[in-house]
Amino acid sequence: MSDRKPSDIQADDGPGDIGVSIWLLLLALADLRRHGTWPDRAMGFCLSAGGALVTTPATDSRARLTWGAEGLAPAQGELPGSRDLVDLYSPLFPANTADPLAVAHLGQSIDARIATQSGDSCFVTGPENIVHLHRMRALCDAVIVGAGTVDADNPRLTTRLVQGPNPVRIVIDPERRISPEVGVFNDGAACTLLVCAADRVTARDSDQAVIGLPRRNHGLCLPTLMSALQHRGLRNLFIEGGGVTVSRWMTAGLLKRLHVTVAPVFIGEGRASLGLPPATAMASCLRPDCRVFRLGKDLLWDFDLSGDHPSESKPTSQPQGPRRVC
Ligand SMILES: NC(=O)c1ccc[n+]([C@@H]2O[C@H](COP(=O)([O-])OP(=O)(O)OC[C@H]3O[C@@H](n4cnc5c(N)ncnc54)[C@H](OP(=O)(O)O)[C@@H]3O)[C@@H](O)[C@H]2O)c1
C-alpha cells in the first residue's frame, strides 16, 4: 500500500514530463463530469488564465484537450509527457458519464505479490506509481479498500501528493472487524463510508456513514453497492486493493478497467495479487485488450475489461510492440 511514507515521494513525479496545466485541465473535466453537463458533441477544452474551464470548438487552436467519438484526446502539438498523461486517464471520461465506472489497481512484484507475508507493502512499486494512485483518487469519486488493507496499512487514502480533491473513502468490512478508532474513520480528511453485511448494521448507525449489503456468494453483493453509491452521486469508483477485494470486483464482472503495475522486485511467499477462478484451457482464458505505460522502473498494464474478450478471438500471429512504453 502506498500511504505510509509520503515524504519519500516527489510530488512532481509522474509518467513523463507532464504539464501541470494538463493535470489541472483533467481535474476540471473530472469536476465537470461529477457536477456539470458533459458535452454530447465534439468539443475542445482549455483553461482560462484564471484557471476556469473554457470550452472551444474541437478545432480551435486554444484547445489542449478534445472530446469526440474517440473520447478524450490531447490536442495536436501537446508534448509527449502530456499526451501520455491524457492517454492514461482518458478512459475515466467515457461517452456516458452517467454510468458507474469501476477501475481497480494492484501494485505487484514480478512474482505476483502485493505485500510480504507479514503484510508489509511499503512500497512494492516506485514513487511514480504512488503518484499515479493519488491521481486516480483525485479523478475518481470514491476510493474503495478491503478490511485487510485497513488492518495492515492504516491508510489515509487522500490525494496529498497531487493537486485535486480527496475522494470519499469506502471500507468494505463485512463483519465490522476493523476498529472504529482507525484513522480513516476519524482523521476528518474526507468523508468515509463503512460497508458491512446488512445484519451487522445497528440502530445507532447513520445512513451517512454505514451501508449494509445483502450477503452473496460468501461475500457482499457488489452490484447493490454500486447502485447505492450511484444513488449518492459516486459513479467513478477506484478499487485500490487489496488482492482479495479487487479479485471479487473482477470476478463479479464489475470492473471496466484494471491497472496492474508490475515492479522489478521479487517478494517470495506473500500476500497474493489477483485470485481468479481457474480456467480449464488457455483458449478460454481472459485476454483483454491492454496498453502499457512506463512509470519510472515499473510497468503499468491498463486492461480494458469493458467488452467480451475471449482469448480465441485475438490474433496471435503478429506480435506487436507495447504502446506508450518509452
Ligand atoms: N500493492 C498493492 O497494490 C496493495 C494495495 C492494497 C493493499 N495491499 C496490501 O495487501 C494486503 C491486504 O490485501 P488482502 O487481499 O489481504 O485484503 P483486502 O483485499 O484489503 O481485504 C479483504 C477483506 O475485505 C473484506 N471484503 C472485501 N471485499 C469484500 C466483498 N466483496 N465481500 C465481503 N467481504 C469483502 C473481507 O473482509 P473479512 O476478511 O472480514 O471477511 C476480505 O477478507 C495488505 O498487506 C496491504 O498492505 C497492497
The SSE order reads: HEEEEHEEHEHEHEEEEHEHEEEE
Class per helix and strand makeup? alpha/beta
Number of strands: 17
What ligand molecules are bound, each kind once? NADP nicotinamide-adenine-dinucleotide phosphate
How does the overall form come out from the CA principal axes?
Answer: globular
Plain-language structure description:
This protein has 326 residues and is an alpha/beta fold. The protein folds into two domains: 59 residues, no CATH class; 204 residues, Dihydrofolate Reductase, subunit A, CATH 3.40.430.10. The protein is built from seven helices and 17 strands. It has a nine-stranded mixed sheet with strand order 10-9-8-7-13-5-14-17-16, with helices on both faces. The longest helix is centred in the first third of the chain and has 16 residues. It is globular and about 55 Å long. It starts with 19 loop residues before the first helix and ends in a 22-residue tail after the last strand. 40% of the residues are buried. The N terminus is likely disordered. The structure holds NADP nicotinamide-adenine-dinucleotide phosphate.
How would you summarize this macromolecular structure in one to three sentences?
By secondary structure, this protein is an alpha/beta fold. It has helices at residues 20-35, 80-89, 127-139, 147-153, 183-186, 222-231, 243-251; strands spanning 43-47, 53-56, 65-68, 71-74, 101-109, 113-116, 142-146, 168-172, 192-197, 210-213, 215-216, 219-220, 236-241, 257-263, 270-272, 289-295, 298-304.
